[in-house]
Amino acid sequence: MWLILDEAHITNVAVHPEYRKNNIGRTLMLEMMRRAALMGAVRMTLEVRPSNAAARRLYASLGFEVKGIRRRYYTDTNEDAIIMWKEDLTGCENRA
Ligand SMILES: CC(C)(COP(=O)(O)OP(=O)(O)OC[C@H]1O[C@@H](n2cnc3c(N)ncnc32)[C@H](O)[C@@H]1OP(=O)(O)O)[C@@H](O)C(=O)NCCC(=O)NCCS
């Protein structure tokens, strides 16, 4: 995660294939949201492949919304990136 002024940008999140679907990805995201809020971020963004249904569903469940497209963002496949934002991290710093 990068923190740029009051914006947090998730650069990478991944769970080992053998450990997926155990709530680890959600826990990692909630912890990054908590740390970002504690460091003064008020919003958070990330890019995701349109084909990545698992990640898109995870982010949507955490309040991220589709806000734009970056054309041919992924150089390996030329796939576009969906830009998602969570506009308000208020309260995320209080997660137990
Ligand atoms: C995306 C990723 C990090 C999710 O990690 P995870 O630990 O498996 O996810 P969780 O168990 O915390 O699941 C949280 C939610 O994500 C969604 N989700 C996760 N895996 C899913 C799948 N295979 N299909 C559909 N939805 C899925 C669900 O909404 C799930 O909530 P639910 O269990 O209540 O339905 C993991 O699949 C991964 O590492 N993928 C490869 C790397 C990657 O794509 N990173 C993101 C790049 S933008």
Automatic annotation (TrEMBL):
Coiled-coil intervals: none
Gene transcribed to yield this protein: RimI
Protein EC: 2.3.1.266
Main localization category: cytoplasm
Protein name: [Ribosomal protein bS18]-alanine N-acetyltransferase
Pfam families found in the cross-reference section: Acetyltransf_1
Phylogenetic placement of the source organism: Bacteria, Bacillati, Bacillota, Clostridia, Eubacteriales
Known role: Acetylates the N-terminal alanine of ribosomal protein bS18.
Record-linked InterPro entries: AcTrfase_RimI/Ard1, Acyl_CoA_acyltransferase, GNAT_dom, YpeA/RimI_acetyltransf
